[in-house]
Amino acid sequence: PRFLTVAELGRLADAAAGYAPMVWMLGSTGLRVSECVRLDVGDLDLKRHRVRVRTAKAGKGRDAPLLDRVAGMLPTAGRAATEPLFLGPGGRNRVDAHNFRTRVWRDAVEDAHLAPLRIHDLRHTAASLMISSGASVLEVQAALGHASAVMTLDLYGHLFDGHLKDLSRRMNAFLALPDS
Questions:
Q1: Is 123 a catalytic residue?
Q2: Which residues fall within 8 angstroms of residue 15, CB to CB, at 6 or more apart?
Q3: What is the 3-state secondary structure (H, E, C) of 11-56?
Q4: At what angle do helices 137-144 and 149-156 cross, to 10 degrees?
Q5: One of 48, 57, 60, 113 is an active-site residue; which one?
Q6: What pLDDT score was predicted for residue 171?
Q7: What are phi and psi of 81, to 5 degrees?
Q8: Which of 1, 19, 68, 101 could pair with 124 in a Cys bridge, judged by C-beta atoms 3.0 to 4.6 Å apart?
Q9: 2 catalytically annotated
């Protein structure tokens, strides 16, 4: 898998122009593009900082984290809960994933100088950013909707190595013996 940095994700979002909020959503939540284009305005829970994926690949729903920065970009003002969150050209119909790939994604990737890059790499990017921010295996598993923590570890286990230094620091503080 390929993981973008926050700066690269920002460049890609800028290159996607009117679809920048969707790129940020994909790169920070771990949603699949097929899940993202099916979101309605009512799937956002701004108070709890979550986005509800009603039907995921495995057939179950799940919640994913919704960053304040991303929530602030989303086109929700004055819109009904049942309206599609992301609208395609003309602003009437839901974004079509295939059209997004061919009409927006390819050019944005080229313009941001990130080729080759698949849309699914934004899911990997979100996982890596979650891990970098200190998320546990179980938190990443839940956000991505993986069937098991083993699947999460198989894909992203190598990214957790950096947490050992922090664990060592916490354990040292926890096990510190008083001076005698």
A1: yes
A2: 107, 108, 109, 111, 112
A3: HHHHHCHHHHHHHHHHHHHCCCHHHHCCCEHHHEECCCCEEEECCC
A4: 100
A5: 57
A6: 80
A7: -60, -25
A8: 1
A9: no
The pair of structure tokens assigned to 127 is 């996982």
Predicted confidence at residue 86, as pLDDT, reads 97
- The torsion angles phi and psi of 87, rounded to 5 degrees, stand at -110, 145
How many DSSP H helices and E strands does the chain contain?
Answer: 10, 3
At residue 103, the pLDDT reads 93
| Residue 158 is among the residues annotated as catalytic for this protein | no
Residues of the chain with pLDDT under 50: 180
Residue pair 21/75 in contact (Cβ under 8 Å)? The answer is yes
Instruction: Clarify whether 54 is annotated catalytic.
Output: no
Known catalytic residue: 32? Answer: yes
CB atoms within 10 A of CB 27: 26
Q: What angle do CA 11, 12, 16 make, to 5 degrees?
A: 120
Residues 39 and 75: beta-carbon distance below 8 Å: no
- pLDDT at site 107: 97
Measured between alpha carbons, how far is residue 29 from residues 90, 144, 162 in Å? 26, 8, 21
Instruction: For residue 65, say if its preceding peptide bond is cis, omega within 30 degrees of 0.
Output: no
* Structure confidence by residue, pLDDT tens digits, 74-112: 989 999 999 999 999 888 899 999 999 999 999 999 999
